[in-house]
Amino acid sequence: MIRDLLTLVSANTLSQLLNFVVSPVISRLYSPESFGIFGIFMGYYNIISEISTLRYHLSIPLNNDVKDSFYSFWVSVLNTTIIGVIGPIIVAIMFISSNKSFYKSYFFIFMMAAIILKGIFQTYYYLYIKLRKFKIISLSKILLAIGVTSIQIMLFKLKWVGLISGILSGYFISVFYLQKKLEYTPIKFLKFKELKSKYVRFKNFALFDTWGALLNIIGIQIPVLTFQSIYGVESVGYYYFAQRIMLKPLGIIGSSIAEVMYPIYIQHKDKKDVIFTLIKKFHLSLVFLSALPFIVFFHWAPVLFKLIFGSQWYQAGVVSKYMSIWFFSVFVISPFSNIISAYEKQYFNLIFQILLAGTRIFIVLLIAPHISFVQSVSLISLGSMILWWFYFIVILFVIKADFKDILNVFLLDILIISGFVVSFKTCVWFFDRDTWWLGLILFLATIFFYLTVIKKYILRVLKNV
Fold first, then answer.
1. Which end of the chain is more exposed for a tag (fewer CB within 10 A), N or C?
2. Could you read off the pLDDT tens digit of each residue along the chain, which spans 465 residues?
3. Whole-angstrom Cα distance, residue 20 to residue 244?
């Protein structure tokens, strides 16, 4: 398992590193307004694409053999094709009376193509997880990143159209590669009688998981879609750009763990101790790995954004500072959310997503018009953070972990996080005074301790899992 995990982490690191390296270039080629329009496009695109397969792509690894997996494969492809066409048409009807100049017909045609391509990519992706071809999956992610970033740089003169074209190109290249590497002929498995049986067998994905995913993505995208009317399109650009940067760490490690461990959850879901041990070791490792970087980022985010991405993105840095408490929680908890699907307890996820989306919608629609942009983001982040930690408790109860074991995990979380907070704050206190050299010594000592624990404990733990 660790070899598969390292393969995916390496690929995700390369792809996300590529995205991060070119971000300072892209941030100088495109204005906050272009990112605002792109953010609105991505808001609707993300909402529809999140449910385009009706979550049947998650059922592919649950099948006993490859043949049954291909039946689920076709269910997912058919769903994404139908919803990928209907969804953007509904959005177009919603905006038919809009006076915004960027709502051209090709805005929605791009959306159709992007949704279908992403849905097909997800379907192939989980098919390769079932086949345990993680090297192919890894290369597809790298090709996706290369396709997106290279086209966005080349077509910068097209403004927001160039940003959208990058998304289309990246997914097209990746889907083409995944199809070329497939050792089977998918069309041979297109049997409608079998497809019907898969619709019925995995109906809970459509009935529960789809609604949960929809509420989740609406909750995430609702600020992007509503801030325009409250604070202006530039605020949408700041919010979307900050969110885009904050998601990078999640793509490097978090999603890799979720993808590799999903088949393991399924295989060992009757062994409570095995699953709990996996969760505890990976979760605490993620908390230790990310606590210090997120604390440093929280303190210096505005300055870092101005330095790396240009002075026009300073406000995005302010926004990302407060978003960091939310994304830290997602980073250390979301890799284990697949447990809900593995145990087929999707109604728990649905309840969580209702609470999450409801909280954000309440803040955006009822509170945001009366407070500042930054205050709105702060409230959204705080509410999201609290709910994610409650969700982690639910995940541990789903696997039937003992209360004392759950309490032990949370106490260790508090110990790790508070230790880094105290250490960093002490360093800053010394830096702000004449004893800056003591702050430097303490900071270097903290870094040495951090790297030593990663090398001697965390890497060893992951190798022994």
1. N
2. 556 555 666 666 677 777 778 888 888 898 888 888 888 888 889 889 988 988 888 888 888 887 788 888 888 899 999 999 999 888 888 776 555 555 566 788 899 999 999 999 999 988 888 888 878 888 888 899 899 999 999 998 988 889 999 999 999 999 999 999 887 777 776 777 777 777 778 887 777 778 777 877 887 778 877 887 788 878 888 888 888 888 766 655 666 666 666 767 777 777 777 788 888 888 888 888 888 888 888 888 898 888 888 888 899 899 999 999 998 998 888 888 878 877 777 778 788 888 888 888 899 888 988 999 899 999 999 999 999 999 999 988 888 888 888 898 899 889 888 888 888 777 777 776 777 667 677 777 777 666 666 666 655 555 555
3. 10
- Amino acid at site 280: K
Tokens of 107: 């805005």
Local structure of residue 30 (DSSP, 8 states): S
Q: Which tokens sit at 247? A: 């998601």
Within 8 A by CB and 6+ apart from 303, the residues are 317
Identify whether the C-beta of residue 160 lies closer than 8 Å to the C-beta of residue 32: no
